[in-house]
């Protein structure tokens, strides 16, 4: 793998940085797309297992913008700016999408309400019974953004709530943890002192720290821990713009596969350490395969969720200096929105749309049956 190809991967990872306040690296036009088949925009039927006394009652969430539901600083973070949230609930709610994100779908599967964001815990006391979301857009296992607590700090937040008796051992016994790592560590690595030769050692370092975090969450008393594999970074619009949104970057995805192989080995190792080997404690959600299934328009098990041009985002900046949601000094929009957000798999240069997440969720059914 030559340095030029590795640099392409590095630039793609660095493109993850704008998910909070930065600018997008690419310039693409808007435009409407159409599904060959339609799904309901604001409340798909998600299914879920049969309720029993052993079903999880709470969901605790850690990670980044793929699962964040409102922790980032309001109103500065783009997730709190129009047009984010235009599909659901019709206004920005701190989600990096036009509507729901992965957290919302997993909560629905578990038949609990989407847990309240940690930031709003003091004004939403009635929602504490569903768990809590500690995820911040832009975060990683290591320090990324000043305003985004890393995953270790997020776990500290839960530990403090346990010490304050906000959550008891019984609460944790009937809970599930969701952990997302979408690549921000890699973006910061390239932006600081990263080298092409150091990618594989750094990926190993990231996965090792993630393993430490998973073990720590389990040690707090959470019996089921769901962790996402890395999505195909080479298929994000910030990369596929080079092919006019028609082809993923295979070189970038090779390094993603290295990350995912190491993570798979870590999850297997952690499960081997659990005394009760009759069921998996650590569950790997295969975002890579589920993204690819949706992007390739494979109907089963996706049902009627299909996208005509899945690599093209709905909301984009009008030049390389502007990202989705950015406005000028006089309030003029510096972005365009496609005619039908529900017809696009990607919402912006990095994040899936609500229907994109629904397609991913649909492809994850086999994984979720382990819960």
Automatic annotation (TrEMBL):
Give the family per the record: Belongs to the 'GDSL' lipolytic enzyme family.
List the source organism.
Cucurbita moschata (Winter crookneck squash)
Residues of the region (Disordered) are: 31-52
Gene name of this polypeptide: LOC111433403
A Pfam family found in this protein is Lipase_GDSL
- Any GO MF annotation of the entry: hydrolase activity, acting on ester bonds
Q: Which domain of life is it from?
A: Eukaryota
Which keywords does the record carry?
Hydrolase, Lipid degradation, Lipid metabolism, Signal
A biological-process GO annotation = lipid catabolic process
**UniProt-listed PANTHER family:** GDSL ESTERASE_LIPASE, OSJNBB0059K02.9 PROTEIN
Q: Provide the protein name.
A: GDSL esterase/lipase At5g03610-like
Query: Where does the record locate the signal sequence feature?
Result: 1-22
**Residues forming coiled coils:** none
Against InterPro entries, the record matches this protein to:
GDSL (IPR001087), SGNH_hydro_sf (IPR036514)
Q: Where is the composition biased (Basic residues)?
A: 32-41
């Amino acid at each position: 793998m030559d340095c030029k190809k590795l640099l392409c991967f590095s630039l793609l990872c660095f493109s993850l940085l704008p998910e909070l306040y930065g600018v997008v690296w690419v310039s693409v036009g808007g435009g409407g797309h159409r599904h060959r088949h339609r799904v309901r925009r604001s409340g798909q039927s998600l299914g879920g297992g049969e309720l029993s006394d052993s079903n999880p009652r709470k969901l605790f969430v850690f990670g980044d913008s793929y699962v964040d539901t409102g922790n980032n600083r309001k109103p500065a973070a783009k997730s709190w700016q129009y047009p984010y949230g235009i599909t659901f609930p019709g206004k920005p709610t701190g989600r990096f999408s036009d509507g729901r994100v992965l957290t919302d779908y997993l909560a629905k599967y578990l038949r609990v309400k989407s847990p309240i964001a940690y930031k709003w815990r003091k004004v939403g006391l009635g929602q504490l019974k569903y768990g809590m979301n500690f995820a911040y857009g832009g975060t990683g296992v290591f320090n990324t953004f000043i305003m985004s607590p890393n995953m270790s700090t997020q776990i500290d937040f839960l530990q403090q709530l346990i010490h304050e008796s906000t959550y008891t051992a019984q609460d944790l016994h009937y809970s599930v943890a969701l952990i997302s790592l979408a690549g921000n560590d890699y973006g910061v690595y390239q932006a600081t002192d990263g080298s092409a030769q150091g990618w594989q050692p750094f990926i190993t370092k990231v996965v090792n720290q993630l393993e430490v975090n998973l073990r720590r969450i389990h040690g707090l008393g959470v019996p089921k821990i769901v962790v996402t594999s890395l999505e195909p970074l080479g298929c994000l619009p910030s990369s596929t713009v080079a092919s006019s949104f028609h082809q993923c970057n295979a070189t970038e995805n090779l390094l993603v596969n290295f990350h995912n192989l190491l993570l798979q080995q870590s999850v297997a190792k952690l499960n081997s350490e659990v005394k009760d080997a009759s069921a998996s404690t650590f569950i790997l959600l295969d975002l890579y395969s589920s993204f690819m299934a949706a992007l390739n328009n494979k109907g089963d098990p996706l049902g009627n969720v299909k996208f005509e041009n899945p690599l093209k985002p709905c909301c984009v900046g009008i030049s390389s200096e502007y990202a989705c949601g950015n406005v000028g000094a006089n309030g003029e929009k510096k972005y365009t929105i496609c005619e039908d957000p529900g017809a696009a798999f990607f919402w912006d240069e990095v994040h899936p749309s609500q229907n994109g997440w629904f397609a991913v969720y649909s492809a994850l059914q086999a994984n979720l049956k382990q819960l």
